Amino acid sequence: MPPRNDDDRERERPSWRELDARRDRSRHTREERREPRTPKARAESQAAKQSYLKKLDEKLFGGKKIGAARQADVVRDARGTRGFSAACDAYLEERGFPADADLLLLFLEHDNPDVVLKAIDALAALVPEKKVDRDALAKALRRVKSLTEDSDVEDAAEELLSTLG
User: Are residues 104 and 91 in the same domain?
Assistant: First the structure.
């Protein structure tokens, strides 16, 4: 057996934990390209991506208005993120309240109580026309009623719930 060299002892060896981590990681992917793991991180990443694409679209196409369907997708994608109310405000500024009941239900999650009140009124107008799913509306209104701190919003939600039966 050859004599040990002191240089071998001074060399830093990876710990068992580091060895296991290397073994678990695929060698065919780059670490910097990994997707965020938590739903909140994914939502924030998606919102940042949408913001980046919107800015890029404005630069490339001179700030032309995007279509209604694309703008509705932006609102849907922003749901659950910090930029949701801003996406709703941009939609309202361009197009007003949507006629689509599913999209209109999302506006009940807006931060501004005035917007929520107007969304409740718009949904109330769709109920007689049977353009809205009554179960989804009732669920959304109960959620708004339980989470809001504004008494006017709570009263409007309760009133519409009572008309649903």
Answer: no
pTM: 0.59
- What is the CB-side half-sphere exposure of residue 128 using CA atoms within 13 A? 4
Predicted confidence (pLDDT) per residue in 85-102, tens digit: 999 999 999 889 998 999
3 state SS for the chain:
CCCCCHHHHHCCCCCHHHHHHHHHCCCCCCHHHCCCCCHHHHHHHHHHHHHHHHHHHHHHHCCCCCCHHHHHHHHHHHCCCCCHHHHHHHHHHHHCCCCCHHHHHHHHHCCCHHHHHHHHHHHHHHCCCCCCCHHHHHHHHHHHHHHCCCHHHHHHHHHHHHHHC
Domain that holds residue 81: 38-96
Residue 71 predicted with pLDDT over 70: yes
Q: Give the integer Cα–Cα distance in Å for 120 and 143.
A: 13
Count of structural domains, the chain: 2
